[in-house]
Amino acid sequence: MIIFFGILKLLIHLIALKGYGYHADEIYYVELGKEWQWGFPDISPFVTWIAHVSNLLFGSSLTGYRILPCLFSAATVVITGYMTYFLGGKRLAITIACSAIICSPAFLATSYLLQPAVFDEFFWALLSFALIAYHKSRKTPFLWLMAVALAFGILNKYSILLLVFSALTAWLICGQRTHVPHWKKLLPPALVFLLILAPHIAWQIEQGFPIFKFTAEVAKTNFDVDLSDYLLQLFFFHGASVAVWSAGLIFLITNPKSKEYLFLGIASLMVIAVLSVLKGKLYYGLGLFPLLFANGGYCWERMLNHFKTAYQVTFTGMLYVFALLSLPVVIPIFSVNGNQFYLSEMVRLTGFSRPLRYEDGSYGKMPQFFADMTDWEHLTTRVAAVSRQPGTFGKASVILTNDYAIAGALKHYGNAALPLVISAKNSFLNQSPKNLDQHTIIYLTKSTGIDILLIADQVTLMDTIYSKNSHINGIRIYRLSFPSKAFKQQYARDRLMFVKS
Q1: What CA–CA distance (Å, rounded) separates 97 from 319?
Q2: Which has the higher per-residue pLDDT, 96 or 435?
Q3: How far apart are CA 116 and CA 153, in angstroms?
Q4: How does residue 233 score in pLDDT terms, banded at 50, 70 and 90?
Q5: Could you tell me if residue 264 is inside a domain?
Q6: Residue 283 banded pLDDT, cuts 50, 70, 90
Q7: pLDDT higher than 60, residue 289
Q8: Overall average pLDDT of the 10-39 stretch
Q9: How far apart are CA 37 and CA 47, in angstroms?
Q10: Closest C-alpha to 304, from 289, 319, 314, 318
Q11: Buried b (16+ CB within 10 A) or exposed e, 259-271
């Protein structure tokens, strides 16, 4: 039964696996994954490993790169089902828990893209399952599972440490120290944990711990509490499944017969509170919800067992009804024009326009993560045309941009047709020269005005990209002849921000 729900999850995403094209982040990870690395300045390496393995197994196609994320998302549903079973849930509880995670729009939106989010959900769920299973059975293999889940979770995204620290803090608050396994049982899993992480730790040491530099830089702009928006995402972006996870949270905290799991309820509240304070986005903590869905399924089973089967079917069915209505908002099953029409009608009938709000506060005609899948080949074609045009001082030898998505797209689609694409930001800095010594440069930016005229002896606007509701809308393509000393120094400073040299 649990495997059935995993297969159902997989089939849902196979219907529109190609969608509108590569997402901006996907191209970035695909390009970084061409070389096997143990670390990067701005991300953990696991998602690039998946890109590398996907290329070996399925080839360099968009569909091939998305198969493994879909399999991981299906496995997360399976883990949720088994977590429900270990908590004491029967068929109805498993059905509700698995249906809730399948039908959540937030999980539907993140389950098919080659991004860390889908693997984050898997490792958080696996760690939660191993913790519950060990708590219930005291079997040592679950300690090994915890060690492996945590190690690879860190290699995917450091945010899993938030779950660990919250759980440990809540566990100490609840005073459940009698449940600590003997140190002889903990030592072998701990060694395995360290062995898995050792190469990545060595890389961080060798590079001067760029993760701390990057985190500090991000924190300068991200420490801005927007509690109302986060709560809006929390309660509305899960659709009807909010009834399941919220019941699970309340059940963990208030159920007198499950005091042994009270610390997990407190830890869940701590994770939600921290993310709200740190201006977190909902997908940063989505890995928490399989645990809450599992407890919510068990809670609803205990309540619905007092009602007729028709009520049980109706409750579960409503999860799928809402999922069907939200499907075009989170999975590209319609054409771009069809999607925009559906969204406009949704806003007209409901007045709910939050899915159309972009990170800069503006509103588009389609969700931003859909817009970030469009027009990358068009951009590359336009840049290639500019790069072929001879200037006063010859053709440009490099293309410079500080936008990792644009750099990734040009690298991916440009091949040998373009000059070397470089960037001083994000992990493409490792593939970029230390100094900007070229006489002629193609420079892509959204900057305008007097300042742009001061970055080189000769600044020529070659083209402007207008692509409505696209990441590249407003990009200007300049040719710079003899960049200024200040511009070169800024490039060098940007490049050294996260690495030693």
Answers
A1: 11
A2: 96
A3: 10
A4: confident
A5: yes
A6: confident
A7: yes
A8: 93
A9: 11
A10: 314
A11: eebbbbbbbbebb
Give the pLDDT of residue 339.
Answer: 92
User: Pick from 51, 63, 61: which is nearest to 16 by CA?
Assistant: 63
Q: Based on the domain organization, do 248 and 344 belong to the same domain? A: no
What is the pTM for the complete model shown?
0.93
b/e map 457-476, b = 16+ CB within 10 Å: eebeebbebebebbbbbebb
| Cβ-based neighbours of 130, under 8 Å, separated by 6 or more | 142, 143, 145, 146, 149
For residue 218, pLDDT over 70 is answered with: no
Rounded CA separation 498/501 (Å): 9
Same domain, 68 and 212: yes
Written as six digits, the tokens of 133 are 């299973």
One domain for residues 278 and 352: no
The Cα–Cα gap between 470 and 369 comes to 9
Residue 39 lies in a domain: yes
CA distances from 378 to 60, 175, 406, 485 (A): 19, 59, 12, 33
> Could you give the CA distance from residue 469 to residue 466 in angstroms, rounded to a whole number?
9
Would the CA dihedral through 487, 461, 378, 369 be positive or negative?
Answer: positive
Phi, psi of 406 (to 5 degrees): -65, -45
Q: How high is the pLDDT of residue 500?
A: 63
Q: Same structural domain for residues 116 and 253?
A: yes
Cβ neighbours of residue 90 closer than 8 Å, sequence gap 6 or more: 301
The string of pLDDT tens digits covering residues 108-159 is 999 999 999 999 999 999 999 999 999 888 899 999 999 999 999 999 999 9
The edge-to-edge listing of strands for the beta sheet with 456-464 is: 420-422, 398-401, 440-445, 476-483, 456-464
Residue numbers of the domain that contains 261: 2-330
* pLDDT of amino acid 176: 65
Q: Which residues of 336-353 are buried (b: 16+ CB within 10 A; e: fewer)?
A: beebbebbeebbeeeeee
Dihedral, CA of residue 225, residue 226, residue 227 and residue 233, to nearest 10: -140
C-alpha span between 356 and 472 (Å, rounded): 17
> What type of residue sits at position 159?
S
Paired tokens of 409? 């797209």
Same domain, 431 and 457: yes
Give pLDDT tens digits for 298-325. Answer: 999 999 998 889 999 999 999 999 999 9
Number of separate helices (H) and strands (E) present in the chain: 22, 5
Give the length of the chain: 501
Render 415-427 in DSSP notation, one character per residue.
GGGSPEEE-SSGG
Domain contains 249: yes
The reply to whether 277 and 416 lie within a common domain is no
Number of structural domains, the chain?
Answer: 3
Residue 273 in tokens: 């509170």
Summary mean pLDDT of the chain: 90
Spatial contact of 3 and 77, defined as CB atoms under 8 Å apart: no
pLDDT band at 359 (very low <50, low <70, confident <90, very high): confident
